[in-house]
Every structure is written in C-alpha cells, then in structure tokens.
C-alpha cells in the first residue's frame, strides 16, 4: 500500500519530487503520477490543478489506480483568522465547502452536503503525527482548525470576516474540502495541510510567488518528517 500525496501547485510538486527516490512516472488521462519512496515508504505524488472539480477528479483517479492507504494534500491558503501570518501552517481539523448551498430546498445548513454532512473531519491520528512532526521544526507557527474550500479566489476582507464568523474558519483555498469529500466517501484516511500565503491583516511581507518558492521546500521537509512516522 502507498501514501498518496496531492500537491496544489507545480513548485510544491517538484519540491516533493526532489526528496523521492526510486522514481518512475506514469500518465493516466492528463495526470502525471510520480511513484517513488520517501523515508523508505511507497508514495504516489500528483498535482491536482486549481478548483474543486479538478481536486475531486484527481483524488478519485489516484484511489482507483493506486492502492493508497492514506492521502495527504498540501498547498497554500489565504488566512481569514487575523491572528495568522505569512508562513504559518494550518492543519485541517475539518473542512467545509463554504460555497455549497442547498438551504432553499430543505432543512440544511449552508455548506451541508447530503449524506456527507457540513464539516468533513481529518484523520485524528494523522493530525497528531503532523503536529508532532512540525513541532520538531524551528520557527513554524501551527494552527489546527477548520479550512474552507470554494471555487472562488477570496480577496474581499469583509467577506472573509463573514465566513470566519459563519464557519469558524482559519483559512480558505480551492481544493481541500473536495479532496476530503472523496476520501470520506471512499473511506480513505486523509489530512490537509496549508501554508498561509496571504493574510487579511495587511501584513503581507512577500508576494505569492516569492512565498511559494520558500514554502515548497518547507512542505517537502514537513512531509519527510510526517511520512517517516507513518
């Protein structure tokens, strides 16, 4: 059995590929799967692309074609909690699709998905192992909390404030909750880890692309430590 790793960005995927050994690559549809070892554990790495449909589709193709026991999603996110800063790390306690809304057709809450629920919980064992792994690294602030996903790039500070109050979010992105939903339906333990790339409090010390180059190496190092404990 393998560990599935889904990266959101090319830079992150390449940084993770660089720590893999015994690599071989294969293509299914237009998805490039990188098979190899990290810390002597069999891993399958793939980039999903932007948005919930791409993320869900990639997750299901990964599950259908590789015997994965766990799926880890890594990427960046925008903070909605004003206490978060650039380079902080959020580990998803749970995830919600904050743009999913069927409240007009029944007794549902916003974000609630039929036969799935509103908040999809990450695997508790993976959360604890990840916290321990990151705590061993220097100068990284960790927050465990709720991550929101939507097919929206959120740049409105007032909207971010509203979402934080409505869903108790730490940060938002565009893929994690879709990956979580597929893993939930397929009974695969999962974890979503996001590095903060921009913040609502005006303390953006670097632009996204500069941040990504720094964060990609950090993500790879975090994964090494986490995977070694699995």
Q: Identify the CATH homologous superfamily.
A: Nucleoside phosphorylase domain
| Element-level helix/strand string | EHEEEHEEEHEHEHEH
Strand order of the largest sheet: 5-9-8-6-10
Second rung of CATH, namely the architecture: 3-Layer(aba) Sandwich
First-to-last CA distance: 12 Å
Kindly estimate the percentage of residues that lie in beta strands according to DSSP.
25-35%
Query: What is the CATH T-level topology?
Result: Rossmann fold
* Structural class by sheet pairing and helices: alpha/beta
Determine the number of helices (DSSP H or I, runs of at least 4 residues).
6
Shape: globular
Mean pLDDT score, rounded? Answer: 90
Q: In CATH, what is the class?
A: Alpha Beta
Flag low-confidence runs.
none
CA radius of gyration is: 17 Å
Helix content: 25-40%
Specify the biggest β-sheet. Answer: 5 strands, mixed, barrel
The number of strands is 10
**Count of domains:** 1
């Amino acid at each position: 059995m393998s560990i599935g790793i889904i990266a959101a960005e090319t830079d992150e995927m390449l940084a993770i590929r660089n720590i893999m050994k015994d690599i071989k690559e294969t293509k299914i549809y237009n998805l490039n799967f990188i098979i190899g070892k990290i810390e002597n554990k069999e891993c399958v790495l793939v980039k999903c692309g932007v948005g919930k449909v791409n993320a869900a589709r990639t997750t299901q193709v990964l599950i259908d074609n590789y015997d994965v026991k766990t799926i880890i999603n890594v990427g960046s996110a925008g903070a909605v909690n004003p206490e978060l800063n650039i380079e902080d790390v959020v580990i998803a306690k749970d995830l919600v699709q904050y743009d999913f809304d069927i409240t007009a057709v029944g007794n549902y809450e916003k974000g609630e998905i039929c036969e799935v629920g509103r908040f999809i919980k990450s695997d508790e064992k993976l959360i604890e192992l990840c916290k321990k792994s990151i705590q061993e690294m220097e100068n990284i602030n960790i927050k465990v909390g709720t991550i929101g996903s939507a097919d929206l790039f959120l740049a409105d500070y007032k909207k971010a404030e509203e979402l934080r109050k409505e869903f108790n979010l730490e940060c938002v992105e565009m893929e994690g909750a879709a990956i979580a939903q597929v893993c939930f339906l397929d009974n695969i333990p999962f974890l979503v880890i996001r590095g903060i790339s921009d913040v609502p409090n005006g303390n953006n010390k670097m632009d996204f692309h500069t941040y990504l180059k720094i964060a990609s190496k950090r993500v790879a190092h975090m994964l090494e430590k986490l995977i070694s404990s699995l």
